[in-house]
Amino acid sequence: MLSKRVIPCLDVRNGRLTKGIKFAGNEDIGDPVASARRYYEEGADEIVFYDITASAEARGIFLDVVERVAAQIFIPFSVGGGISSVADMRAVLLAGAEKVSINSAAVTRPELISEGAMAFGSQAIVVGMDVLAVPVSAQIPSGYEIVIHGGRKRMGLDAVAWARRCQQLGAGELCVNSIDADGTKDGYELTLTRAIAEAVTIPIIASGGAGNPQHMLEAVTQGRASAALIASIVHYGQYTICQCKDYMAQHGAKVRRTW
User: Fold this and answer.
1) Active site residue 11
2) Which pTM does this prediction carry?
């Protein structure tokens, strides 16, 4: 059985680490480079970096920040935000990332997933999914809708159907983020996470809502995720990566520990 991964998420705006609730009210909480180094030293399995306004502002990602983070960590590093072409992917990978995360651009031009997988391999392509709970309908039979541009634009696209298509197009991994749970620290949206995990065979990262290590354990057990993405609980010093992994291991989850 593969180890379940613990992945701190660095949301970056204007080169600074930021955090909000349900994609709103973001505040500056520090230096992403220093935070990435700390999480690496605490035992994080990967680091995810999102330039959260790049797509909405129709600009490229801040590659200088990517380079500075990559120089400080020696674990897999995934970068997203404003990536809309194979050239963008190449620039991010050359800046030090192992994976690129595409979200809005993949929804508006799905062939980008295939282009990236052909150029760099499926293992380098993560598709981020920002998902909103909505009433069940013929158009959205799962009750979960894809939203792009940092939660600003609803797409009328069913999240489970989109997950299946992403896999078919060559995505190597999906990061499933519940907008409703994001930043609330009330727990992951387990029904959503499990629905996506059961619809595909590639790894799923649960994102949005972690408030304590028990929530992370639930994500990789009840939610059937391969990894738990965390932000607020480590950014604000409530828990360390070590504490999270210790709790998960004590309750039966297989995790990588180096201490």
Assistant:
1) yes
2) 0.90
